[in-house]
Structure formats: C-alpha cells, structure tokens
Amino acid sequence: MLRVIRKAAKTILPKSTVYRLKRQSAQNRFEKYTQQKLDMNFKLVEPGAIPPQELIAKTAALNEAELEKQSQADVYLETGYYSVLRLFKILEHFSINLRTIGSVFEFGCGTARLLRYFRHLDGVKLVGSDVNPEMIEWCLNNIPDVEFYHNQLTPPLSFAEDNSFDLILASSVFTHIPLDTQEVWLKEMQRILKPGGIFICSVLGQNHASLILGEREKAELNKTGSYTLTSDDSQATFSTKVGGSAWDVFQTRSEVITHRSLIFKLSSVINEVKGSLYKACSRLKGKCRTILAIAC
Ligand SMILES: C[S@@+](CC[C@H](N)C(=O)[O-])C[C@H]1O[C@@H](n2cnc3c(N)ncnc32)[C@H](O)[C@@H]1O
C-alpha cells in the first residue's frame, strides 16, 4: 500500500519535492540509526556544502542524464546518507562496533560526499585524500573538521604513518585504478591500516558490466577476470570521459578474491552475503560489488 502511495506521489509531485522528501527520509533514518548506535558519542552536524556541478560530473555520473539528477542538492546529500548508513550496517554485520572506531581514512574522497557524514562520530580523527587537486581544494574550503590531502597517482601517502587508521574506505576508487596499480595501492592501504583494521573497497562487478559493456567486452571480462576501458572509449562512464579518471576497471568476483586475498585476509564479497545485509545491498540496485577485507 505504502509503495503504491509512494509511486503515485512520485508522478504527482514536482521532482524537487520528491528529491527533498527522499533526502529528509534518508537523513532521518541515518541520524536515528547512528544516534542509537553511538549514544553519547553521536554529534549532530549539518550535512554541509554542495559541490559545483563540474566536480560532481567528475565523480558521480554514468551518463549525462544521471549527472542532471546527481547535481540536485537533495539527491547529492541523499546518496551520501544512504551509502554511509549502508556502510555502518555492513560494519555491524561484521560485529564492528562504531564506538570502537577512532580514525577513518577515505581514499579517493572526491567532494567528501561520504566522509562528511562521519563527522557525526564525535572525537573521531577523519582524513580524506584524492588524486585530483580540485577536489581537495574544494573540500578544504567547504568541509570543516576533516584533514584533506592531495595524493599522487601511485603511493606512498606521505601524510600517513604505518598503522594509522581503524577504518579505510575506497568507494568507487579502485573502480578507476588499473590492476597493476591497484596492487601497490592495496599494499599501501595495508601499511596505513592498524592491525585488525577494516578496509572497505568497492569494485565494478557484473551489474555495472551489464549496464556498460557490450557482449564482446563481457566475454573478455569473464575470460580474463578483468576489463579496462580508457577515457577515449565510447563506452566509458561520463565521469571518466570528462576527466574524473583515465580508466573504468571491471573485475569478476573470482579475480577480486584471488587478487585481494594475496594482500589482505579477505572477509567477504558482500554481494554474496545472504539475509538483511544482502537486502540492503540489493536495494542500491546492486550497482557495484563491495568487498570487505581485514588486515592481517
Ligand atoms: C567516482 S569518484 C568517488 C568519490 C567518492 N569516493 C564518493 O564516493 O563520492 C572517484 C574518485 O577517486 C579519485 N581517484 C581516482 N584514482 C585515484 C588515486 N589513484 N588516488 C586517489 N584518488 C583517486 C578521483 O579523483 C575521484 O575523486
């Protein structure tokens, strides 16, 4: 019944109203969950500034139509609330208590679409870095209470000492790093992660492959375990074509397991997890395959 009402409302109401209602609902759900988990350690913060469209274009658009939608302030904020709540639930699923996290690093943070919401965790050290200096400059000018650094295309991360972070996120970042460079970055993530720390990294899996690749490319992906598009390829994502990255990198589940397991103790390829967590992932329409790895 609720679904029917929602569907009807979507067709009657102006798009801007629908986006606002969805953002409010995502924000309420996020704040309620996080406050309940953190109790005294929860801090109420404003979501913060919305980046200009040219930066959103470089981080969040499969195509031009999507860019139009992603550039709406309420949509930009809602996707962040939704994704960070999903991350928190993934951590809970693996019995990680949010209150025990003292430091978080987001590799390839872009415009801090996700990292900004970790400011609700009172007293936690927050650090973001990105290879694109425009992103970092914007973050430094607009997102308080977080340290931001520009990093080079290959390691090391000069600002980070060994064993610095409890949690590292790389959301839609290894999706733009060719496999040989992924390997050196994985080792760098392991270096800066505390023993027992958690590294959550998304990769472009079969869902994106079916959205973007043709039959020939998909066959190659399944045969070799990976497929890389460059920014000149007609099939490349809009963000990659406009200079957000030079590559879109697709990987199969078995390639991820083999590759990651060499460096980390791989805990799970999350799309494979059954039950409520699986539902939480599939509600994102399963756009990417998320893995969780534990440093050994
Ligand atoms: C699709 S965006 C995702 C941004 C952010 N993680 C989010 O979820 O909104 C990919 C980001 O990864 C960054 N990136 C790509 N390769 C990188 C590298 N080698 N080091 C750091 N950042 C990188 C890009 O500049 C871009 O900001």
Instruction: Bin the strand percentage.
Output: 15-25%
Order of helices and strands: HHHHHEEHEEHEHHEHEHEHE
In round numbers, the mean pLDDT is 84
**What would you call the shape?**
globular
Bound molecules: S-adenosylmethionine
Second rung of CATH, namely the architecture? 3-Layer(aba) Sandwich
Helix content: 40-55%
Rg calculated over all Cα atoms:
19 Å
Cα-to-Cα separation, first versus last residue: 48 Å
Number of helices: 12
Poorly predicted ranges: 272-290
Please, how many domains?
1
List how many beta strands DSSP finds: 9
Physical arrangement of strands within the biggest beta sheet: 3-2-1-4-5-9-8
Question: Going by CATH, what is the homologous superfamily?
Answer: Vaccinia Virus protein VP39
Report on the structure:
The chain has 296 residues and is an alpha/beta fold. It has a single domain, classed as Vaccinia Virus protein VP39 (Rossmann fold, 3-Layer(aba) Sandwich). The chain is 44% helix and 18% strand. The strands form 2 sheets. A 7-stranded mixed β-sheet has the order 3-2-1-4-5-9-8, sandwiched between helices. Strands 6-7 form a two-stranded antiparallel ribbon. α6 links the parallel β2 and β3. α2 packs parallel to α5. The longest helix has 24 residues. The chain is globular, with a radius of gyration of 19 Å. S-adenosylmethionine binds next to loops.
